[in-house]
Amino acid sequence: MKLITKKTNRYGRLHILEFNPQKENLLFLSVGYKHRERLSKIKHQWALDRGYELAASFNGAYFSMNKATSDTLGLDYRDHGFIHGYTSKDDTTMEAVWDGQTLTIGDYIDTDVVGSPTIHWAQSLSYSLVLDGKKDIRKRDGNYWGKHPRTLLGQRKDGTIVVVVTDGRPAGLTGSQSADLMLELGCYNAINCDGGGSSEMTFKGKIVNRLSGGYERKIAQAFQVYSKPSPKTPSKKCVCLDIGHGSDTWEKTGGKGIRLKDGSSWEEHDFNSKVGISLKKKLEKAGFEVYLSQQPNSTEIPLYKRVDDINGRNIDLVISLHANAGEVGAKGYEVWKWHGDTTKGGVFAAKWIKNAKEFVPDLINRGVKNCRPGERTNFYIVRKTTMPCILIEHFFFTDNAERKKCDTTKYVDKFTEISLKTACEYFGVPYTSQLSPTPVVETERDKAIKWAKTKGISDGKNLSNNITKEELIISLYKITNH
Ligand SMILES: [Zn+2]
C-alpha cells in the first residue's frame, strides 16, 4: 500500500493511493453510520474488534446535504459481517461492487446484489470513467463538466485499487479529465465518487489533501482500508547474569576466596562462573535472552561500569551469582533483594527460596534478605540497577563440608535449575526440567530381585511377604536345575 503525492501541470496536485487487497492481505470496506460523520472519525467497529488497523480512508457516495442522516443516493449495500446500509432502487448512478477481489463497475439495483454470498459491498457512486480498459462515461451528471476537486476510484487488471483525491479549489478536474487520468494510471475500470467539499483522504491517521471547504465535511459513507496486524512475536525476556567478582579478585584483594590447608586457593569467581555458564545455557534453551555483565573466568569489571552497562540495556531481570563467606558454622543459601522492592524482585526472591527447598532440601534455607542503605549488605548491584535485581548466595564457601558438597557439577546443576524454574514461573514461561538425570546405581538387592525373576522364583511383587516352607522348597528345586 502506498500513497504518492505529486504535482502535475494538467491536474494540479494529486494524492494517489494504491493498494492490492489480495496481495497485501487488506480489508477494503464500505462504512457508514446512521448519521453523517467526518471522515477522520469514521471507524469500522467489526474490523477493529478483530484486530485490524485502519490504514486509509476516502469519501465515496453522494448524499443529501440537507439531512443529518446518512441516506446516500441510491444503492448502499454492506454485507459479510459489515454494517448494513440502505438499499433502494435507483437508475441515476453507476455502482461499484466489491467481492473481495474485483471491483466491478456497472449499473446495478438492490435485487442484483442483496443476499449474494460473494458480494462484500455495493455502492452507488456517480458516473463511470473507465470500463473494460476504455474511457466510457455512463450516467453522467451535472458535475461532469466543471472543474472540481475529485475522488476517483478504479482498479488495474492486476487487482491493484487506485484512488485519486485532488487538492481543493481552484485546482480541479473535469469528468473527462478524471477519466483520462484514471486511464493514465493504468485503470481497467474506474468510477467518479462524490467530490468538491466531500473529497477527502486519510492515510495512516492523517488527512492528506487540502480540503476545498477548509474543513472536514460530514459525509454519509466512506471507503476504508484495514490492514491485518502482523502477529506479534512475543519479545524474549532478557535476563542479565552478573557473575560475581573477577578471575583476578582473589589475587588482587585476598578476598572472595579462601586459602585451603594444602596452600592452594579456592576462588568464589570460579564457582560463580560455573553457575553463570550453566544457567545461561538453560535460560537460553527455555527461550530467554541472556546478557552477561561480567564474563566467566575473566578479570573483574568494576561494579559501577557493570551497572551503567546493565541500565543502558533492555534487561528485565538481573541475577547476581555468588557464594557466601561467614563465621564458623554459617551454612546455607539466601537471596538478597532491595528492601523497597516488595513486588518484582521480592516475588522472584520468594519463588527462588520455594524452589530451593525442592531442589536442595539438604541445605539450610536462610530465606529472603533485604538490602538496606547504610548497612554492609547495601549491595551496589541491587541498589543501583533500575530493574528488578536479586543477589543469590548459593552456599558458604567458608564451610569446608558445604564447599566440597556444593562446588560440584551435581550441585551447580541443582542451583541453576532453581533459577531456571524461578525465572520461568516469574515470567510465565512454561518450565521444562533441564536437571541432569541422576545415574541409576543398581544395588545388590536390585540385582538379586532381577536374578530371582529370571529364574522364575519371584515375580518381583509383594517382596516383604513371608514365604512358606512349600514355596521355599519349590524355589530351591527351581534353582538346582531340576
Ligand atoms: Zn560474592
Detailed description of the structure:
The chain is of the alpha+beta class and 482 residues long. The protein folds into three domains: 226 residues, no CATH class; 190 residues, Zn-dependent exopeptidases (Aminopeptidase, 3-Layer(aba) Sandwich), CATH 3.40.630; 28 residues, no CATH class. It contains 13 helices and 26 strands. Strands 1-2-13-12-14-10-11 form a seven-stranded antiparallel β-sheet, covered by helices on one side. α8 packs across α11. The longest helix has 19 residues. It is elongated and about 110 Å long. The mean pLDDT is 90. The site of zinc ion has 5 residues, from loops.
Strand runs, count: 26
Report the radius of gyration as a whole number of Å.
39 Å
Task: Specify the overall morphology.
Answer: elongated
Give the helix tally: 13
- Termini separation comes to 90 Å
List the strand order in the largest sheet: 1-2-13-12-14-10-11
The helix/strand class is alpha+beta
Percent range for helical residues?
A: 25-40%
Q: Catalogue the unreliable spans.
A: none
Major beta-sheet overview: 7 strands, antiparallel
SS strand fraction: 25-35%
List the domain count as a whole number.
3
Averaged pLDDT: 90
Ligands present: zinc ion
